[in-house]
Amino acid sequence: MKKAAAMLAIMLLFLAGTACAFAVELQAGTIRAYEKNDLTVCSDEGGRLTIEAWYGTLPLKNPVTDLDIDAGTVRIPWDGLSYGGEPVQSGKVRLRATLTGSDRTVEQAEIMTNAVNPVPAAVCCLPAAERFYPDGKHPLKIEIGLSAGGTWEATAERADGTEGPVWRAKGQSDGKYPVVLKWNGMLRAGVRCEPGEYVISVWTKALPDQVCTAAVTLLAEREPDLEPAVTGSLIPADLSDDAAVWEALTAPVTVGNGVEGSGLIIMENKGGRSGRAGAVDGRTCGLAVLELTEDGWAKIGAWRQKDGRYIEGWVRAEQLRVIRPNTRYGAVVDKRTQTMTVYEDGRKIGTLLVSTGYTTGEDRSADTHSGVYLMGTRMEAFSQSNHRYSYPVRIDASNLIHSTGYSVKNNIRNYDEEIASLGTKASHGCIRMDPRTTEENGGINAWWVWTHMGHDTKIIVIPDE
User: Fold this and answer.
1) What is the pTM of this model?
2) Other C-beta atoms within 10 Å of 340: how many?
3) Phi, psi angle pair for 91, to nearest 5°
4) I want to staple 82 with a disulfide (CB 3.0 to 4.6 A). Which of 60, 112, 119, 324 is the partner?
């Protein structure tokens, strides 16, 4: 009798454990961003449901938070998008369902599933300038981003909608960045589009309802070229003064007159036989103009490429040009605090952690160069030291700005190592940005920067010495 009672007790405990284990069950098929991916939740009792998601070790936006569900089977659609609309790429995705019952008991279920490449979709449309004069010779460059390879289309039309498209373009992308379009602002040979406000739109054949747009102004007359003038230091003295910082971020900047990636040689003294003081990027590096002489020389200050040290020296004034930066956004990277603060239209909108270059007293080759830079071309992801880096943008010939890196094992992306180093000097010279979003950073992360801050946006890097 006692033996039978003991067996009954064991069976009841087993059944109780079985019921608890299956109080909530989570199922999911393959995830593809921009599609309706069903997450299926089965529960013995209803309650309040939250589903969390991780892309490898990177936390994603919850597919659902505090949703009241009934007992039984519930299918919840998830578009596979994270914060800021960032699509999940191919790899492993971990999902965890937490169900809180009416009696406040909590049950959880966790699964691992696969994500594949997203549906091709437009994710950004970034003109290289906010306004331009359509002379037919100097077209406006437009960078567009796609979530995956596919067919894209683009148009330009008047902002007031009084006419149809005045320009169309169409092409095929393999999904690598960037796709660079050129619009010359002409209706046909020798006939300019009317001056005024225009909207550039881009979408994909696979997802035509997801349209990215950008506003540009066509000028009636060419803006006069700005001549180099003495500027003094380009670094704001008081970073707590938002007005002064914004003025510095939007002020015209003197650079070398070469193309992006070319070098500008700075001489120690005036004259062709002078020794070299160093070199900087000829298109994206801002130069402090300290003196202009009547014989055509300019004394300038900058942080050189070789080791990031500040130098002053001389170039011919004809080697310089002045650029009006993009004035919607700007950013300040402070190497002392290892932070990046983003501004929009004069106000701070978020601060995120970064890692700049790690150097020693003897070897400064990995230093992140201080100074003022203009954002250049967006690039495709790259690998270095067994890590993969997403969303790179060139700001200097040897320095990029991009997301923290990840390693891959068993198709699982592991971001933990480089996320842990954020807030410290840890990079090879590039500026690594936080891929996560938090309340503190205002929702800004590496993806946000890549899809919002266009060509010639100014970034000021504050020195730590």
Assistant:
1) 0.91
2) 26
3) 145, -170
4) 60
Q: Domains of the chain: which residue ranges? A: 2-116, 122-218, 242-322, 326-462
For residue 248, the number of C-alpha atoms closer than 13 Å in the C-beta half-sphere is 27
pLDDT, mean over the chain = 91
Residue 291: partners with Cβ closer than 8 Å, 6 or more residues away: 230, 298, 299
Residue 123 CA, chain-centre distance (Å), reads 11
Q: 80: how many CB neighbours lie within 10 A of its CB?
A: 24
Q: Which CATH class is domain 122-218?
A: mainly beta
Contacts 24+ apart (CB under 8 A), 234-237: 234/286, 234/288, 234/371, 234/372, 234/460, 235/370, 235/371, 235/372, 235/460, 235/462, 235/463, 236/332, 236/460
CATH code for the structural domain at 2-116: 2.60.40.2550
Q: What is the mean pLDDT of residues 5-15?
A: 39
Report how far Cα 33 is from the mean position of its chain's Cα atoms. Answer: 18
The domain made up of 242-322 has a fold known as SH3 type barrels. (2.30.30)
User: Residue 436 phi/psi, 5° resolution?
Assistant: -90, 165
Please spell the DSSP secondary structure of 392-429, one letter per residue. Answer: -EESSSS-EEEEPPBEEETTEEE-HHHHHTTTS--BSS
What number of CA atoms fall less than 13 Å from residue 139's CA on the CB side?
11
For residue 86, the surrounding DSSP H or E stretch is: none
